[in-house]
Write a structure and sequence with these properties.
alpha/beta; globular; 12 helices; 2 domains; inorganic pyrophosphatase (n-terminal core); Diaminopimelate Epimerase, Chain A, domain 1
Length: 320
């Protein structure tokens, strides 16, 4: 982190980007870091290739998020991205090569693409941002704290994931003491959904299928158009499917605008879906991962399901 702080302190302008189809950790980390650097007098561009979900519009700086690639900024920072493909159209190989790139992330499958890699094993990237900015003389204002607590709360599913420990609760308390409202964040993030998302989920849930201990559904472009939904509004569906009793792995297959198929995966204890995602060029965490695969939906679905089934068989073989 020292090298990252040195480059950020020396920069007059910083470009910060998060991953496509951003979740709360991506948006919270993007805004938390951007607001902190602006407080230090830096000119900050905060970018995402996909529109930020409106449920995060209560966060300060939300309206400043743009969808433009880096320009003449001194330093480029990526947050919550395991590889450059996750940046979508924001990644420009030539511009990235001409500047120092700081890669801030927490995914175990991160490929260390930065000149400086700040990759931790914390449950959220927002916590990594918090650890980075605290020694830089940043005042953790209510706005910064709210952004970072949003990242922590969403990526731990309200502190329910298996990687939550005392450290995360202490960080949450510190952010609450700085002015973030846990009540407001959980209400606005988890209890406020657009009608288009409810429509999309209704269609997807009507098509749920199971195979052994695997549960999955599909979201195609026709369903998205019918509901007037945005690409991110399938988010959270795979976690809901993973709550089904007797299930080891849940998947949601989504057809993207470019025809490729995104597979989002969630797993129960003892399963490692990140290793499966890696087989298809993706990544993530052992129990929460994903990949994007070229091909027709039926073919991609069968290939991914076969890999999941093999992973389940291998786990059973190696079990004591």
């Amino acid at each position: 982190m020292r090298a990252a702080r040195r480059h950020l302190k020396g920069a007059r302008s910083v470009y910060i980007a998060c991953h496509i189809m951003p979740d709360g950790d991506a948006i919270g980390s993007l805004l938390g870091l951007g607001l902190a650097l602006r407080q230090l007098g830096k000119h900050c561009t905060m970018a995402c290739d996909d529109p930020a979900p409106l449920k995060f519009d209560f966060l300060a700086g939300f309206e400043d998020i743009v969808a433009q690639p880096p320009d003449a900024e001194d330093v480029i920072v990526t947050v919550d991205c395991s590889d450059t493909e996750r940046l979508g159209a924001l990644f420009d190989a030539q511009r990235f090569a001409r500047r120092v790139v700081i890669n801030i992330d927490h995914h175990v499958t991160n490929v260390r693409f930065g000149d400086v890699n700040v990759v931790t094993d914390l449950p959220s990237t927002a916590e990594t941002v918090y650890a980075l900015i605290r020694p830089m003389g940043v005042e953790i204002t209510a706005d910064i704290a709210s952004a970072l607590l949003t990242g922590l709360v969403t990526d731990t599913r309200c502190f329910r994931t298996g990687n939550v420990a005392t450290k995360q609760l202490k960080t949450a308390i510190a952010l609450i003491n700085a002015g973030a409202s846990l009540t407001e964040i959980t209400e606005l993030v988890f209890n406020r959904e657009p009608i288009a998302k409810i429509c999309l989920w209704g269609q997807a849930l009507a098509n749920v299928q199971t195979r052994g201990s695997i549960i999955w559904t599909e979201v195609d472009r026709q369903m998205i158009r019918k509901c007037g939904a945005s690409p991110d509004e399938g988010g959270g569906l795979v976690s809901f499917l993973a709550s089904a009793m007797g299930v080891d792995v849940a998947l949601v297959f989504r057809e993207q605008d470019d025809g490729r198929i995104e597979a989002s995966m969630r797993a129960g204890p003892g399963m490692d879906v990140a290793s499966v995602a890696l087989q298809f060029g993706g990544g993530g965490h052992p129990r929460a991962a994903g990949c994007t695969v070229a091909g027709e939906l039926p073919d991609v679905r069968e290939r991914v399901l076969a890999a999941i089934e093999e992973a389940i068989r291998q786990r059973e073989i190696s079990a004591p």
